[in-house]
């Protein structure tokens, strides 16, 4: 598992190197980050990493990336409850990241 993650990380870092360039647009950076996350390996249970998203006036915005748990969906669901308690007038959701 570590070897697979390491190979994935090395290949993904190449695409992330352009992320730091000043002349890359915000939309391009968002695309680069999304592709990096899509390439991350899933956990031992095969459950995908999760984005905790919040609905805004411009659409759904990614807020938190949950990785590394045996069941990222369960952890995101718990975070969803906390977010709704903290901001009851807002809409939140969990979505698969990879």
Describe this structure in words.
By secondary structure, the chain is of the alpha+beta class. Helix content is 45%, strand content 20%. The chain has 2 domains: 1-41; 43-98. The protein is built from 3 helices and 3 strands. Strands 2-1-3 form a 3-stranded antiparallel β-sheet, covered by helices on one side. Strand 1 (50-56) and strand 2 form a beta hairpin. Helix 1 packs antiparallel against helix 2 (26-39). The chain is flat and about 40 Å long. The chain starts with a helix and ends with a strand. The model is unreliable at 1-11 (pLDDT under 50).
Helices and strands, in order, run as HHEEHE
Q: What is the CA-atom radius of gyration, in angstroms?
A: 15 Å
**What distance lies between the first and last C-alpha atoms, to the nearest angstrom?**
16 Å
User: Strand order within the widest sheet?
Assistant: 2-1-3
Number of helices: 3
Measured by DSSP, the beta-strand proportion falls in 15-25%
Q: Percent helix among the residues?
A: 40-55%
Strand-pairing-aware structural class: alpha+beta
Whole-number total of structural domains: 2
Indicate the mean pLDDT. Answer: 81
Low-confidence runs of at least 5 consecutive residues:
1-11
Q: Globular, elongated, flat, extended or rod-shaped: what is the shape? A: flat
Count the strands?
Answer: 3
Largest sheet: 3 strands, antiparallel
């Amino acid at each position: 598992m570590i070897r697979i993650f390491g190979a994935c990380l090395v290949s993904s870092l190449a695409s992330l190197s352009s992320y730091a360039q000043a002349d890359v647009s915000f939309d391009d950076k968002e695309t680069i980050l999304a592709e990096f996350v899509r390439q991350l390996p899933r956990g031992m249970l095969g459950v995908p990493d999760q984005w905790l998203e919040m609905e805004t006036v411009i659409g759904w915005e990614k807020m938190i990336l949950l990785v590394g748990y045996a069941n990222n969906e369960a952890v995101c669901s718990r975070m969803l409850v906390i977010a709704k308690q903290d901001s009851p007038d807002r809409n939140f959701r969990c979505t698969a990241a990879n």
